[in-house]
Structures are given as C-alpha cells and as structure tokens.
C-alpha cells in the first residue's frame, strides 16, 4: 500500500522568478500529481514569468510593475491566462480563490502585506520572506492564530527547528540553536572587512541565493533576522535562542531539550528540501534529490560567532528585545543599506553603521498595526538614506 498523501495542493507562488520561487517550481515539477500552480507573481521579470506561465498554466499571473504587466499581457495573450498588474495584482495572487497554500517568496518588505492578505483570505502560508516576521511578527502570528492558519517556514533553519520540535511540548525545550555558515568572510578582521566588494559579498560559500540575502549572510544580519523570525514562529524568548557557526551548512539547526539532549536536522545545503517539506507539511514525502552521504560528508564543526567582527547579530537581538516597531526599522534600514552597498555607494562596514544609527534614533511603538509598521518602515528608509549620505 502506498504511503503517499494523495491530496493535491493548489499553490500560489509569489516571487516565482526569484531563487526560492524557481526552486519551489522545481519541487512542483518533480511531483506534478501532488501540486497544481493556480497563481504566479513577481516584480518585473516578464521573460521568466511568461515561460513559467506557459509551463505551469496558472489561473492568474501578476507582476507589480505596470509596464511589465502590459508586456506580459501581450506575451500571454495566446495562452489566455489573465495578467494583473500593480500591488492589486500581487494581492489577487496572494488571495487567489483556488489557492490553499500561498508561498511568499518575495524579497524585502513587500512580503508583509501579502502574507497578511493571504491569512485574511484563509490561506495557509509557506513563508520564505523573513522580513515579514521581522517587521510584523506579532501582527502576523496573531492573525494566523485567530484564523487557524498554518504559517510554515521555508527558511532551512526554521524548517530544521520545526522538524526537531515535532512531537515535543514547550516545557521540554531549553534552547533553540540556529546554525550559521559564517558567510564568505568568516575569520576576517575588521580591516579586511572594510575592503569587501559587492562581488565578494555575493559569493556565498555554501548557498546560492538572491543578492539581498547573500549580503545579509555576509554581514550576519541574516542570522539576526532569523533569530527574530524564530522568536515569533516558535514563541521562544530571545534569551533562549542561540547562534553557532557551522561552516559546512549540513546541520541546519538544533533544539536543546531540558535533559541536555540536542536534536539536529541534517542534510545537504539544498533549499529544495525545506521547500518541499513546507509544501507537503505536515507530511514528509519522497524527494528525487540526493541526500547526504554521511561517510563522504566533510567533518561537521561548530564554533562561536565572532561578534566583534560581526556586531550586526547583537544589533538584531537588541532590536528584538526592544520589540514593537524596532525590528521593522532594523529590517527597512538594512534593506536600504544593502541596496546602497550593492550600488557601491557605501562600504561593507557602513551597512551595520547605518542600521545602528537608525535604530539608535528610533523610539519603538509597541504592538503596531500594519499602518504603524509601514510608517516605521518608511521613516527608517528615509533615515537610512540620510545616515548613508553622511558616510559618502
Ligand atoms: N534564496 C534562499 O536560499 C533563501 C533562503 C531562505 C530564505 N530566503 C528568503 O526568501 C525571500 C526571497 O529570497 P530570494 O533569494 O529568492 O530573492 P530573489 O532571488 O531576489 O527573488 C525575489 C523575488 O521577489 C520578487 N520581488 C522583488 N520585489 C518585489 C516586489 N516589490 N513585489 C513583488 N515581487 C517582488 C522578484 O521578482 P523579479 O524577479 O521580477 O524581480 C523575485 O521573484 C527573502 O526574504 C529571503 O530572505 C531565501
């Protein structure tokens, strides 16, 4: 008798042209009987979303950019697939009638309103966009609880924690331990970090990812965002969330239980596995990608984070403990600073300086609404640009 769960999942994939979106579609293509794509959405990559639409035949497609939407309509006219443009279009994809699981794989602050819309429409959410929980963790987790919506993490660390926590009670958990590869600059001195270029920062040693998260991994801001994400996803205080450097990226995170036992989730650094787990959750299904050959695997080593060289991790903990709008400010200031670094307008170490300067100027508002979060986000972006201008 087959152990396969025979239910078909209807997916809406927002950010389908990005690193996570493309890999989510690989997962879908590997098991077409299990998944059906009902909506696809992206920012403006018309060529790729047109190709994806021809292959997966969604019921609707959306791109945020209106000019891109016009071009996409022209390209998809023979296919008779409706094309929506603008924020409205993205919201239509996030709430598509037939979708039962919405994959939020856009980058940056665009994820929060889309996640909230999907929850309000009663859709389960597979959440890759970490900025959503960093900016609006309280709001999003409350909305999901009230609507009985599953918020399933896609991020490999949080997927690992979800898997390690399965079947345990909250009182049995002592700590969550997130692993960090250490990024491309592990072991660098501050002097050396000051000379880092965008090309060097985009060249991650173990993961192939989009540009923003690659730079965030290099500064360790990414790990800080993940600590905040873990706090909201699993309801664990910041004092009980640790980070340990594990350069091989084979152990994706661990849970330490009250009896001193650690459970770890182990596998090759391949995002298709956590994506598939999120898409089939709570079931685990066969996957066609090679698993880890333990006998051939490199040694698994662990070391403490060098917080002197990489103070951004501490900043994220501080913002998390400040609470309210502080984490939205952290996220928005970082997004601006990373953009300016990629445009070569500020240096690598200026990213953390800009974020710290903006955070120091911020007076957090407790329990913010979506409007409060958006206002804090807007304020932080303007302040980050000012802080960066002072560094050029
Ligand atoms: N990549 C990873 O391995 C990984 C792992 C864990 C978590 N994550 C998280 O997953 C999210 C996506 O990361 P990624 O690496 O896949 O990013 P990415 O490769 O840069 O892709 C971003 C996607 O979002 C779309 N997009 C960008 N801005 C948008 C907007 N304003 N409105 C609508 N769509 C927009 C892009 O469309 P266009 O192509 O049209 O520009 C693209 O489809 C991030 O929050 C990241 O932190 C990523």
Which properties best describe this structure?
single chain, 392 residues, alpha/beta, Rossmann fold, 2 domains, seven-stranded parallel beta sheet, four-stranded mixed beta sheet, 16 helices, binds NADP nicotinamide-adenine-dinucleotide phosphate
Q: In a few lines, what is going on in this structure?
A:
The chain has helices at 19-30, 46-56, 66-76, 86-94, 111-120, 130-147, 156-165, 190-193, 198-201, 211-219, 221-234, 272-280, 312-322, 326-342, 348-361, 370-389; strands at residues 9-14, 35-42, 60-63, 83-85, 101-104, 124-127, 151-153, 173-180, 241-245, 251-257, 262-266.
Map the helices and strands.
Layout: E1 9-14, H1 19-30, E2 35-42, H2 46-56, E3 60-63, H3 66-76, E4 83-85, H4 86-94, E5 101-104, H5 111-120, E6 124-127, H6 130-147, E7 151-153, H7 156-165, E8 173-180, H8 190-193, H9 198-201, H10 211-219, H11 221-234, E9 241-245, E10 251-257, E11 262-266, H12 272-280, H13 312-322, H14 326-342, H15 348-361, H16 370-389
Parallel strand pairs: 1-2, 1-5, 2-3, 3-4, 5-6, 6-7, 8-9
Antiparallel strand pairs: 8-10, 10-11
Bound molecules: NADP nicotinamide-adenine-dinucleotide phosphate.
């Amino acid at each position: 008798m087959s152990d396969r769960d025979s239910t078909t999942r209807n997916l809406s994939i927002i950010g389908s042209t990005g690193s996570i979106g493309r890999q989510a579609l690989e997962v879908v293509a590997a098991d077409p009987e299990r998944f059906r794509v009902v909506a696809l959405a992206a920012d403006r990559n018309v060529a790729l979303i047109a190709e994806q639409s021809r292959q997966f035949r969604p019921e609707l497609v959306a791109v945020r950019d209106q000019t891109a939407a016009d071009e996409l309509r022209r390209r998809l006219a023979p296919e008779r697939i409706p094309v929506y443009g603008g924020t409205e279009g993205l919201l239509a994809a996030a709430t598509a009638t037939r979708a039962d699981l919405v994959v939020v794989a856009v980058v940056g602050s665009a994820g929060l309103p889309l996640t909230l819309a999907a929850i309000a429409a009663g859709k389960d959410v597979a959440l890759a966009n970490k900025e959503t929980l960093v900016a609006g963790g309280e709001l999003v987790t409350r909305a999901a609880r009230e609507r009985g919506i599953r918020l399933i993490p896609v991020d490999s660390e949080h997927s690992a924690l979800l898997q390690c926590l399965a079947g345990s009670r909250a009182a049995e958990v002592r700590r969550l331990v997130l692993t960090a590869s250490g990024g491309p600059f592990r072991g660098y001195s501050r002097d050396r970090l000051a000379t880092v270029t965008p090309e060097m920062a985009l060249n991650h040693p173990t993961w192939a990812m989009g540009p923003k998260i690659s730079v965030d991994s290099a500064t360790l801001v990414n790990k800080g965002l993940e600590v905040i994400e873990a706090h909201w996803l699993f309801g664990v205080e910041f004092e009980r969330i640790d980070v340990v450097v594990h350069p091989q990226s084979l152990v994706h995170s661990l849970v330490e239980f009250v009896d001193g036992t650690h459970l770890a989730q182990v596998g090759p650094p391949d995002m298709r596995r956590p994506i598939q787990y999120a898409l089939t959750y709570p079931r685990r299904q066969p996957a066609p990608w090679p698993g880890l050959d333990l006998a051939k695997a490199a040694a698994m080593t662990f070391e403490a984070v060098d917080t002197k060289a990489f103070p951004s991790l501490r900043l994220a903990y501080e913002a998390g403990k400040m609470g309210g709008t502080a984490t939205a400010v952290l996220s928005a200031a970082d997004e601006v600073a990373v953009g300016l670094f990629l445009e070569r307008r500020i240096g690598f170490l200026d990213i953390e300086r800009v974020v710290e300067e903006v955070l120091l100027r911020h007076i957090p508002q407790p329990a913010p609404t979506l409007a409060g979060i958006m206002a804090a986000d807007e304020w932080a972006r303007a302040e980050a640009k000012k802080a960066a201008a002072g560094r050029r």
